[in-house]
Amino acid sequence: MPPPDRRPEFPASPLPPPEPAATPAPGSGAIDRMVRSLRGLPPAQPWWGTGCAGQAGWFRAESAPTTEATPRFQQLYARARLGEAVLPGDATRHLYLLVKGLLGDEMFGYLEPNQVQLERRGLETRAVQVDTEGSLADNIEVVRHALEDAAFFGRSVVLVGHSKGAVESVSTLALYPELRKHVRAVVAMQAPYGGSPIAHDLTTSPELRRMLDIAFPLFFYGVSRSVDDLAYPARMEFVRRHPYAGEVPTVSLATSRYSRRSLLWPVARYMFERYQLPNDGLVAQVDAEIPGSRLVRLNDMDHAEAALVGLPGFANHHPGNITEALIALALES
């Protein structure tokens, strides 16, 4: 495990522009094309207008408060890194449903280390077959059917969602409260519950909007509506109509990372320079704080590290250990 970044916290004020980054070598994969387009984001300073300034964390004043759980998580995570079993004895009674985030089907190994580690601990896992390029509404129905199937067989469920998959998990329980009794706990990793600044800018800036409407169906066989679902106006409308207040024991992971060693460094820097928001490269840390949840805040993790094994020297955490510790924390509730 590499040492933590020397600068785990976001700086108090924007840094001077860095030297130009080397252009990645051309590739044929969809994710390669996405990374190249993200690296091509223009500097924040020349952008016009206020964008989504002031909208991050909009829901906190009108939602149930969170409970700080980072110190307890750090204890569990340290033990999990050493190979110790941190899950409670009754953890094997539940079915663990994993819900992928946006473009998860395009990423090799996405959520695989998380699932493998849980199965090594003797837990029964299943990946919910959401369309990772699909709309929030469609995927909520997929999660609903997965919960109904589990209930039919008398199973208690732990929902483990990453990114948009976490939003779909809590949104299903908000829309279908009758399913909550079948869910033992929810683990929401880096969920853009309040929205995402980068999704907002992609959908509201004319130049980026045109790129999104063309590139998303062409490269990912999806619809740009799935990105619209994570912009602030859509999240405000949905959450106000269907609030989630942690009625089921819930743990949320909210992260940030400001490091050149991060795969998402260009986007993290863009969001910080334009909005002064600590973020993980795709989600502002404050927007991942699920109302009513036990909250874990980490300042040295980007958006990829919770679901993908990173290169030594570039990633600070192993996704399997993170997931095991978060589930242990959730089952303590």
TrEMBL record:
Residues 1-30 are annotated as: Disordered. Residues 11-23 have a biased composition (Pro residues). InterPro entries: AB_hydrolase_fold. This is Lipase. It comes from Hyalangium minutum. The lineage of its organism: Bacteria, Pseudomonadati, Myxococcota, Myxococcia, Myxococcales.
